[in-house]
Amino acid sequence: MVPNTDKHKSAKLKQTASSEVASKSLFKRKRGLRIMGLNFGTDGLVKGFFGGNAYLAILFLLFICLFLWKSAIGFVPHYRTELKDARRSGIELSNIIADETKGHQGIYNILSTGFVHEKRHSFGQQEAVIYVYEELEALADDALEDEIDAYLNLDDGPEKAAAAVGLKAKIDAASRAIPAAELLDPVKLRIESLENISEEVLAQAIGYAQQYALDDYTTPAAIAAINKDINSQMGDYGKALNHCKASAKDLNTLHEAIEQNALATFDLLKKNREAEESVKTLTTGLEKIQKVGTSAEEVAKRKKQINTAESTIIKVDTNARILPVYALLKKHDATVGTMKEELRAGISMIPVESIVTQEAKDSVTLANKLLVEFDPIISENREILKNWRHDEELTTFDSLKAFFFGSVWNTGSSRQSLFGILPLFTGSLLISAVAMCFAIPLAVGAAIYVNQFANKREAGILKPTIEFIQAIPSVVLGLFGVLVVAGLLKDISQVAWLQWIPGFPIADRLNVLLAGILLAFMASPTIFTLAEDALNNVPKAHAEASLAMGANKLQTTLKVIVPASLSGIIAAVMLGFGRVIGETMVVLLVAGNMAKMPDFTAGFDVIGQSVHTMTGIIASENGEAVPGSILWEGLFMVGLVLFMISLTINSLCQRIINRNKA
Amino acid sequence: MLLSNNVSSKKTYFTTKHKTMKLKEIAIVVATGAAIASTAFGQAKLTIKGSDTLGAKLVPQLKADYLKSNKGVDIEILAQGSSHAFSNLLADTADIGMSSRKVKQSEVDKFNVSGKKLVEHVAAWDMIAVIINEKNPVKKLSLAQIEGIFTGSITNWSEVGGKAGEISLYTRNTSSGTYKSFAKLAMSKKDYASNSQKMEGNQPICTEVANNLNGIGYVGLAYAKGNDYKTVKVDGVSAKPSKVAQYPLARKLYYYTVGEPTSEVAAFLKYATSNDAANAIVEKLDSFQHLLLTHP
């Protein structure tokens, strides 16, 4: 084996050597024009052209790096100012308290959903009156809108009274003309336990619908009365629920007061910053035209503009403005304590024994569980708020930390913009991981088959076909995903015996799994081609030796060829990963674009959720980003992170391949 | 109009660079240049850029109708978002800007710096329709309920009278003018819930809501009618052009020009903002219902 490869190598060496000689002689034949050691003849220029093109790539890359860096770097100080303003004005504080009110709201929502379920189960007929009324009201409004409007525009008098009679008759006729089945369908949709509906209910509902039209589109008092009646009959359960709702009243008031105060200060700071910016732009504009030379009149006009802009800048004394916030904050500990206790009391007031439906029972259990989890959050918040200072220094490091470890990305807000890359980063990574789970077995398996087992004809069909996938434009693939695969996947996810698959059943059509599948399809040709090359590069002698020792084809492939080319396959997979994480159009269309941290407590079901990605956010938000604004810079920061990831992947691949060669 | 600018700039170019060239020769050159240009382009050119709310359907329809009676003009429309209206007007690459929001102070500043005056023209009233799945039994929502749903404090359909089910939110993305308009009109400028899915346009929202029993989204009224989804009444008022005065989610749309419009631009704007023309378009297009040209 050894002499054989040596021979092989030396033959190859000879070949390259001779080709080198040939190329040298090609350029040496004509000496051309030489100036200062540089060849300016035809040969020299041709060579220079080729070389220049090669170096152009490096130049271009450097240029991109410079551009990225220049656009992104301003983000850090800008974001620091933004965060500082949020702290000085008290928005930061308000956000912390908002977490508590949101937590309460979440628990209440669960309880209220259970309550509604129970109510519908117990009082189907009364509720049905309301729903039938709503249906009729909508249908009458659609059919008789113009006539109702005309009636309402009439002046009070006998004419109006006569019109009312006519209108009533028309609504009555229109309502009765609706087939009962059609009417009942949506009502049944809401009240699942509803079996049938009486003529009485229908007549009652028609009466209310007439009233609605004649009373200037206000909900009839009778409907409100029915609601009240049902609620009172729900008795203790309803009272308990109201108690739960009311438990956060004080906390909500407190939060609102703090927020109003903070927002006012924050807006002032923001306006001042804008005014300063405006003065700066105007001043540079003036300097520019002064350089060119312009009329004194124009200069005076501009100066006046600058003065007006300057006059809008007011000094904001944040130390004075924050004082009411501190005063309110003193009440926080007691208020949040009351909220928690009252909520607990409210939940314990729910008459669990008399609840009929399982859904309502489950809701109470869940609420109790969440209440326990709420405790440590509240005490942690208390600790944070105790030590919170509006004038605490915010360093550049804090701004970087808020970017790299922030779990909220919220731009285009009329309040505080937040740039936390974590949800986007996690989203990108999650999609890539799912894509790789599909792509690796698919592409590597195909590569092994085509390289080792397929006959020439088969390989001749398979290889170009797989490689052709690469030619599909990603926007086409994305649209195919939205219009075809999304629906298909959702339908499949409803099949009962497939529920063991993580993420099933899918709630939202656009999710991680869908994006992962489409991207796996996209990455497959890249991995396939490179893996196939790697398998091809294993010297024939390896396989021959293995076969000679009595191993069969399968053993040879799995135990000799694949291990020998493993580093090449790993490099192929990594490049495929790089392609997936950098893909934009497909994820923009199918990932759901929900800039929220995926909920990992769901376990593997997390792949059924919608996410946003780093590439997607740049594509979707740059439309409105003003160059130089914080959003613009923030997006470039995300771009920089993406660039770093790609760079790392590529250099790792190079290293793996080089090590293999050595 | 642009063409005549080009010609005159050409003229100054010749006179300054080639002082020795006789006036007559210059005139000939300019005349032939103009002749070539006019045979190449055949007509005056009008460029309209900006908001996709206006630029997707209304303005192209107005253009088609306008061109029937005005053969000598070529109108180019590019709808990429309201911000582009101002950047293009500033760079002189558009004659008319379309915007679904009022101009910002920072944008006015930029115009002031370059000594330009921005003039505003009301183009239409836009109504934002809230859409839900056809099979959803909910018929109407109050503005407070809409705010609750989109800010994330109401998360289940049963809380607003629907069948129990987690609400899926579909919104436009942050670079859309409608995203901000909706936040202003329906959500008292509060932030969207973090579990809202940001879609790339009106159509994707319609597609998702049509395919998701628990979906809710908002679209321009041009997209309000479609298969498998329906609009809800807001505060008891349905999203119909005749109800624009009462409907809570309605807003103005604008055209902007640099300085008072002249010649071709003025002619087109006069036509496009006149009631007769636009109403004729509305009648022709029953899918497009979102405008009323006079202040109601």
Automatic annotation (TrEMBL), chain A:
GO terms for molecular function: phosphate transmembrane transporter activity. GO terms for cellular component: plasma membrane. The keyword Transmembrane helix applies. One of its GO terms (biological process) is phosphate ion transport. Residues 425-653 form the ABC transmembrane type-1 domain. The chain crosses the membrane at residues 54-79, 421-448, 468-489, 510-531, 569-590, 631-653. PROSITE patterns: ABC_TM1. Keywords: Cell membrane, Membrane, Phosphate transport, Transmembrane, Transmembrane helix, Transport. It is a multi-pass membrane protein. It is found in: Cell membrane. Pfam families: BPD_transp_1 (PF00528). InterPro entries: MetI-like, MetI-like_sf, Phosphate_PstC. Part of the binding-protein-dependent transport system for phosphate; probably responsible for the translocation of the substrate across the membrane. Belongs to the binding-protein-dependent transport system permease family. CysTW subfamily. This is Phosphate transport system permease protein. The lineage of its organism: Bacteria, Pseudomonadati, Verrucomicrobiota, Verrucomicrobiia, Verrucomicrobiales.
